[in-house]
DNA sequence: AATCAAACCAACCGCACTATG
DNA sequence: CCATAGTGCGGTTGGTTTGAT
């Protein structure tokens, strides 16, 4: 059995105070992100490193947008979710200033209900097989989205600093306004960071009601 | 005004992946 | 190769807020 990430004793849990936030922000501004395990001690916080990381990523990061989601963002989330399933970090990576937690919460509290009401989806929180434990990752990625050069969208890591660190192969990323065709004509300027590789590939058609089925068909055929 | 239910969202938990020794 | 630490991700929980009665 794996050891817990931190000792249960002397660890504060629950809501963060302003003082704690300030300590965390000050520390990260001075020393940068990373080394989350040693950060709490160094920053004078009685928190688990994971908790610090989460607080920073989901709440304190200066580039966060906060506030309610726009229609464009909602539309994009719906389309990306149809493509990616519950890969919230990937989805959030295409929504500048949004976090995976925020997107996930928004999906579960707003969009999912909306779609169910419209009869568009019967999605549960575990997108693919609700019976199987959710942490079985091999079950999370739809067949369509198994790593595959035909799906350039998958090869772009989330646009967070940490993920960029983790994916040195993507340091050739350039800022390109990624335009997607929404609702058969409206151009949605997402302004996300795309890799050179993916921007050279054909425009993504995220009109999922049609292309997803087609793509699934293609994938299944090619897998045979 | 009080109570209850629903909605929302921050935070936690546990697993998987990756790097390192 | 194996064990372990560090980190990231997705699902879930629980406290708070809002709305309905």
UniProtKB/TrEMBL annotation:
User: HTH myb-type domain spans which residues?
Assistant: 8-60, 61-115
Q: Which GO terms describe its cellular component?
A: nucleus
Region span, Disordered: 158-182
**Superkingdom of the source?**
Eukaryota
Query: Which PROSITE patterns would you find in this protein's record?
Result: HTH_MYB, MYB_LIKE
UniProt keyword list:
DNA-binding, Nucleus, Repeat, Transcription, Transcription regulation
GO BP annotations listed: regulation of primary metabolic process; response to other organism
Keyword hit for Zinc? no
What Pfam family does this protein match (any one)?
A: Myb_DNA-binding
Q: Indicate where this protein resides in the cell.
A: Nucleus
Boundaries of every Myb-like domain copy: 8-60, 61-111
Single GO molecular-function term? transcription cis-regulatory region binding
The family database entries (InterPro entries) matched by this protein are listed as: Homeodomain-like_sf (IPR009057), Myb_dom (IPR017930), Myb_TF_plants (IPR015495), SANT/Myb (IPR001005)
Subunit structure, interactors included = Can form complexes with MYC2, MYC3 or MYC4.
The name on file for this protein is: Transcription repressor MYB4-like
Species of provenance: Prunus yedoensis var. nudiflora
